[in-house]
Design a protein that fits this description.
The chain is α+β, with helices and mostly antiparallel strands. The protein has six helices and seven strands, in the order βαβαββββααβαα. α5 packs across α6.
Length: 167
């Protein structure tokens, strides 16, 4: 009989702090793309129960990943979802979730080493399962801890953005 993986957590709306979407800067020129336009209005997510939990107004964090020596990988942006994911046109195609997210200027981005050094954030799913498909997530406690490092997250936690603060 197969054993369930114990390192996978079931995401619930009760403990969801923010969705975390990832982009691999080794595969795509994310730095160049965001230098031209720091706004993100949609991103691909894997169909599944997590995508079905996504709703307008929920916070979303952008995580850049890739080779450790090239760029300061980690949290590059923050925003809110503006709707529910839209299924792709073909079977097994990724879904696209609409959002209003702004990638921060490079000096404001949070390097993963800084986040990993914070014991409240060291257990982030993106550290435990870096190859997992989008979306990943932060618990409420983790998202609140992120706000200590990133004032923009504090604005989202407090509802200071134009998007609804509840979901």
């Amino acid at each position: 009989m197969p054993h369930a993986r114990t390192d996978e957590r079931q995401v619930t709306r009760d403990d969801l702090g923010a969705w975390l979407i990832k982009g691999n800067a080794d595969l795509v020129d994310l730095a160049g793309r965001f230098a031209r336009d720091p706004r993100v209005t949609g991103w691909c997510v894997r169909p599944g129960y997590r995508a079905r939990l996504m709703r307008a107004g929920q916070p979303v964090v952008f995580w850049a990943s890739g080779s450790r020596g090239r760029l300061p990988y980690g949290v590059w942006g923050i925003g809110r979802l503006t709707g529910e994911p839209v299924p792709g046109g073909e079977a097994r195609a990724p879904w696209t979730v609409p959002m209003d997210l702004t990638v921060l200027p490079e000096p404001r981005r949070l390097h993963r080493d800084r986040l990993r050094a914070d014991p409240r954030l060291a257990g982030l799913e993106v550290f435990r399962q870096p190859q997992a498909a989008n979306p990943s997530y932060l618990t409420r406690a983790q998202f609140t801890a992120l706000a200590d490092h990133l004032p923009e997250a504090a604005d989202v936690v407090s509802g200071a953005t134009s998007a609804p603060a509840t979901w």
